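Example record

The entry below shows one chain as it appears in the dataset: sequence first, then structure tokens.
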Amino acid sequence: MSKLTEIGPYQQLIRDHFHCDDDDLARLQEEADTAGLPNMSIGPEQGKFLQVLVHLTGARKVLEIGVLGGYSGAWIARALPPDGKLIGLELEQKHADFAREQWRKMGLADKTEVRVGQALESLPELADEAPFDLIFIDADKGNYPDYLDYALRYSRSGTVILGDNVRMWGSLMDPEKQDWDWVQGMRRFVRELGRDERLVSTVVPYEDGLAMAVVK
């Protein structure tokens, strides 16, 4: 399920020592492929980075916009304390069911929840759940600016906001793709994330770019 399968010798060395999937995560990836889920998951490097951030910030409540097969959510939920909570928003029922089952197998059911439907329809219903300590955006790129608006609304000082796929597999800088809705949405997201005075932000240079901001 991960799109980050072609890596060089150095990346492989680092992955072997720091970021390799354990048996449960490897099984999730294999079963996702068998189930026909899209090959769009983050790689183990980013998963470990999310896990480190949860530990570093002491996050107890996390919002994930875009669950897919639950791979990134597994990394996050494992790092949460026993009373922590990950709420994931997922468009596809098939993906949500798959993620729930994988999390159950990993013993993470009590710390995870998936809500199915259009994220922009689900987000207004989360007001009472806010603020979140960490918000991970990894869904349809055209709506990233709207997701950022909600992320800011549902944050507190110190909340970490992340957005995956800034590079968009090369499309962000492709002159022939600048009229794509997803490219325009990502460009606006990057612009707003970088200029918003409420945030301290950067882009972590993973293969496809991971935007990261901390609310002041």
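Notes for this example: The CA atoms of residues 60 and 84 lie 4 Å apart. Helices lie at 9-19, 23-35, 44-57, 71-79, 93-105, 119-122, 144-153, 181-195.
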